[in-house]
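The aim of this short unit is practical: by the end, you should be able to scan a pair of folded records and say something sensible about each. We start with the first protein, listed as its amino acid sequence and then its structure tokens.
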Amino acid sequence: MHHRQLAITIPRYGTSWPPRSFTTLFDVKRIANLTPCVYGASSQHHPLPQYFFFTSISWEACSVSRKLLTTVGAAKFPSIFIWTRALRTAGLDVLQPGPTIYKSTGELVWSDPSLGSCNDLNFQTFEGEQYLTVWVGTGGGASGLQTGSGFALILNSKYEVIRNISAVNPEGTDLHEFRIPQPAARTALLTAFNPVQLDLTSVGGLAKGWYLNSIIQEVDIDSGRVLFNWTSADHIALDESFNNLTTSGSGTSEGNPWDAVHINSIDKNHEGNYLISSRHCKTIYKIDKNGTIIWRLGGSRSDFTAVSNDTEFNWQHHVRWRNDETQISVFDDGAAVLHQTSIVVDEPVATGKLLNVDQEAMTVSLAKRYFPSPNTGFSLAEGSTELYGDFVVVGYGSNPWITVHDTATQGVVFSAVIGPNNSTLWVGGISNYRAFQTSTHAFTGHPTQPPSVAVVAGDVYVSWNGATNVASYTLFTGSSPEKVTTRVSNVRNSGFETKISAGGASTFILVEALAADGKILGRSVVHRASDGSIASR
């Protein structure tokens, strides 16, 4: 397929869109605008309430708003969203990155800017239990080479880090993949990048050029031992790359290596073989556990024959086995930004795809294709296609969009936009590496810190960052910090932050958080009713 190459400038987008402020939190003052829209009666068939997970949203420049296209949506599609990475440098739209969990109504559930720039927030099984997983580190799209160096973290329901995992030689885990393969659920699939010297004369480079080696590793989570190590330099020919030396690293120095392959996802089957996605080769590779390439799908050397239209993908992300290896899901970006200044466009619209893959006949056909709506356009980086039974969640990478589709009909039943509706990673500053969801019944957050309280103009504001099962708050008052026992009122939890009238309160106050059955989940420290300052800890 022929592509066109464009040059773009990178303006400062600014923060002209209105923020929503919270009174109770000092480190999460303003939050990204999640605008959910629900489509049609098909949303009535959505399963249990869901959470959607996100990472690296700017708390200093964002807001939350809601817009439902029908009244069916919020009740039938309450979810937790996982938004995975919005990266910009200081002064643009993401000033304070961190992981985020939202309900599908647009309500914030949890955020932690202390983790900083992060990717791939998800909900995975480790040793038989469910945990939050996330990559944290430095680098990414704004670094030019679109890679990172950091750590893969596992967090429990208290949002505490229980495991810290890293690739080995080179040290530092890349941002693109952190997957715990099932059913063993004791290892981590990780990506890493390392510049090495290589003869690049066959592609017009130096005899002693610099090549950005794409590395995949499987690491034992508890011991840190590397169980599998594979590099692109040892297995993928240079001429398989669609990325030339003028668009993504000239290969003339260690600091400017040629990113020929750019592995961005890894999966593993029950036989121990690996499925990897190379963005810059536009190819999906099946790798034997001994390291040899079993076959290629897509790119310039595909081993498969297409038996239907629309099986192509370009600059793809998030490749996964599906349905006992008879299908593969992929996010087809359709375009790419290379080294921040060059855009390559092969398709006008980014889509999630489900491909039928016959590994005996070596044929591929299109099973389903999931289009964005109401927004439309190609994605320049990142993105995901995740299957949840009757529903498919598609995240649009450099575009801050999420759509949820009926798996069978492919129709959109829910969509959301976070922040300004920017068209690229480089213009507007908010992107979404991957989007995931989980049922509100499957995840319960139990933060260790107490509820946060503030007092403004005689009203008490309370929030409990990360607590998912608070039904109501009770305000207590007293004449001394040691005796705050007089009940003032009990109010229903109205969202991330709840307002309580302080009428009748005495000198000191505290707030208790209650579950639906009346169980006390936690209580705040004692505050002065006059100004909200802390009287005790």
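Turning to the second protein, read its sequence before its tokens, just as you did above.
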Amino acid sequence: MGITIISKYFRYKTREFLLVGFAWMGLASPWVPEIIEMFILITGPPVNNELVIFIYLLINIAILPFYVIAWLIATISFLGIKKNSRSIIMGITYALTFLFEILIFYFFYTNRILIGEFSGPFLIEWSLFIEIFFIICIAFF
């Protein structure tokens, strides 16, 4: 779906098609770590819990704000929000995103339980901090 929307950009040359298509591609990104984990399980090398959490961290959590920001920029453009209000909204979004990203990587290297725990194949029990992060991202969508 996202690629179809992005392809419309080349016909209409409207930036919003790129942003919305990118955001739609982000909706499918939570499945990518499961695909990678399944490939690892099928090919046979032992699965390291830290490796799985790192894959989830990079693919699911770390890039999620980029999809949210793309969606927010497109939505602000569609709604025709004034430039001053747009700057305030985006500034707050960038600040929160930056803060969460720093905290997520800090917790990954200092105390992984603050991110989540691997509880079996294809299953991570996310911490309250990450669940709040997900709820905030969903609220923007």
